[in-house]
Design brief:
- With 497 residues, this protein is of the alpha/beta class.
- Among the domains are: 165 residues, no CATH class; 85 residues, no CATH class.
- 27% of the residues lie in helices and 23% in strands.
- Strands 7, 11, 14, 16, 19, 22, 25, 28, 29, 32, 33 and 35 form a twelve-stranded parallel sheet that branches.
- Helix 9 crosses helix 10.
- The radius of gyration is 37 Å and the shape is rod-shaped.
- The N and C termini lie far apart (91 Å).
- The mean pLDDT is 88.
- The protein binds zinc ion.
- Zinc ion binds next to loops.
């Protein structure tokens, strides 16, 4: 018989496989179960491997150890073999663990449960629930083919002090409380890759992620609900397709810095007690609803949204969100607009250098931003947002309902874009002057005698009105005054209010 392909493994290959029973590929439970003797062989070979590893640690003779491993009632506190209070660590290398069921006589986790400390190195798991409640574990470079259910694992001390390091989860990682919240005392992941993370009714005592600096991970779906995170929550440099946080309390700092892309992010009924920093992150869609941020919130240099067009529900939305501290949106680009209208603010937000697409942004949002600049004395920026606010006011005002207001807003925009573009009134003046000349020189105003007679009695302007064309002069007088007024206002708004 040929030897297992794996270096350092002296076992024979299993039937037609090129590896031994411990290292060969495993499949779904039904498939492995129906291969006669397959799961049983795995169980026996694992037992012999553990026995020889224990024997090399001088805890007893091989016979005693095998007897201990096979005795279903024995535990490492009741056994006759001499553990001698030495906390023996067993390293299991590259083993492919199949799925198993508690009722099977070859259920192998009962062998693992008899060990105090296990270091799983480059192992693969088809199993969804590893019931090793009293064993300290560490998973290094392991792969999990199916969804893994978490519980409060004891952790084997390691450099990063996490449970999983550089592991790959091809399906999901799930945790949920059973009627009450489940507590997880240790840090879980360092530099792992995920498909789906689902945490419900769980209290995390330590940081969930402890990634090394600059690690760029990807997560397809990450949802957390009705949970408590008592330590830092740091997920930098990640790409996440869907991030959902519901009814969750974060007691410490939350960092989502340099997120390469978060496609859908929705946060509802959450409480952030520490600071939140999302520096230079990209969000395609962000919706935050009824949440409270108690400390500083930073969205500096972020990019929100993808669509430059008018679209429904695509703006970045902070609905009934309360900020109890400073919020920083400096140099942030709201490509698809922003809805800040129902946010509750204790401090004035900083929107310096922010770009906001007005198409999907409402008047109240611009008013809040304008007000924030007013309060810090940045009048030129305040004026810019005043113009945005007025433009929105105009588009939201219906002519039939308020014709006078609509007309004034329209004229204001036409003449100077609400005091923002000084060259607009200048341009109108340059058009008006030759037009005035043309009207005066090529028309007779004899038929306006009555009107001329009336207006020439208007005392403040009577000296400026041309003889026999007082009425037309008055109209031009009003137009010139209006344009000069808009020009002065526009220049003043750029320099000083
Ligand atoms: Zn092997």
């Amino acid at each position: 018989m040929a030897e297992c392909l794996l270096e350092d493994c002296n076992l024979n290959t299993y039937e037609h496989e090129d590896k031994c029973i411990l290292h060969c590929e495993k499949h779904e439970y039904s498939q492995d179960f129906h291969k006669i003797g397959f799961l049983n062989s795995f169980y026996r070979e694992l037992m012999y491997l553990i026995a020889s590893l224990l024997e090399s640690n001088e805890v007893g003779t091989k016979e005693h150890i095998l007897e201990y491993l096979e005795d279903e009632t024995a535990s490492n506190t009741t056994t006759t073999i001499n553990f001698n209070n030495i906390r023996i660590m067993i390293v299991l290398n590259e083993i492919y663990f199949p799925q198993s069921k508690d009722i099977d006589s070859f259920e192998y986790t009962r062998l693992l449960r008899k060990l105090e400390r296990i270091y799983f190195n480059y192992c693969k798991f088809s199993i969804s629930y590893l019931d090793l409640h009293n064993t300290e574990c560490f998973f290094h470079d392991c792969k999990f083919q199916n969804a893994l259910l978490l519980y409060n694992f004891y952790i084997l001390e390691n450099e990063s002090n996490v449970l999983f390091q550089k592991c790959e989860f091809n399906d999901g990682v799930v945790s949920f409380g059973d009627g009450r919240k489940m507590t997880i005392d240790n840090s879980l992941f360092c530099d792992c890759s995920f498909n789906k993370l689902t945490f419900e009714d769980t209290t995390f005592k330590q940081p969930i992620f402890k990634n090394s600096k600059g690690f760029t991970g990807e997560i397809k779906e990450f949802s957390m609900s009705n949970s408590i995170v008592e330590d830092r929550f740091i997920l930098n440099y990640h790409a996440v397709e869907s991030l959902s946080l519901v009814d969750t309390i974060f007691h410490e700092k939350v960092e989502l810095k340099k997120a390469r892309n978060i496609v859908d992010c929705s946060i509802s009924n959450c409480n952030f007690k520490g600071l939140v920093d999302c520096y230079t992150s990209n969000f395609d869609n962000l919706f935050i609803y009824k949440s409270i941020f108690e400390e500083y919130v930073g969205f500096e240099y972020c990019r929100f949204g993808t669509s430059y067009e008018k679209c429904e529900n695509c703006s970045t939305k902070f609905e009934y969100v309360t900020f109890l501290n400073f919020i920083n949106m400096r140099n942030t680009n709201f490509i698809s607009g922003l809805d800040f209208s129902s946010a509750n603010l204790k401090e004035y937000p900083n929107f310096l250098g922010a770009k906001i697409n007005p198409l999907n942004t409402n008047k109240e949002t611009f008013r809040i931003i304008k007000h924030s600049f007013d309060k810090i004395g940045n009048t030129s920026e305040a004026n810019r947002y005043f113009s945005c606010e007025m433009n929105k006011e105009m588009s939201e005002t219906l002519f039939l309902r308020s014709p006078a207001k609509k007309t004034m807003l329209f004229l204001n925009r036409l003449l100077s874009n609400f005091g923002q573009w000084y060259f607009l009134p200048l341009m109108w003046l340059l058009i008006l002057i030759p037009f005035h000349e043309w009207v005066v020189s090529s028309h007779s105003f004899d038929n306006l005698d009555t009107l001329n007679h009336i207006v020439k009695n208007i005392l403040p302007v009577k000296h400026f009105l041309n003889k026999d064309m007082e009425f037309i002069s008055l109209l031009f007088y009003i137009a010139y005054s209006g344009l000069i007024y808009h020009f002065i206002i526009s220049v003043k708004r750029i320099t000083k209010r």
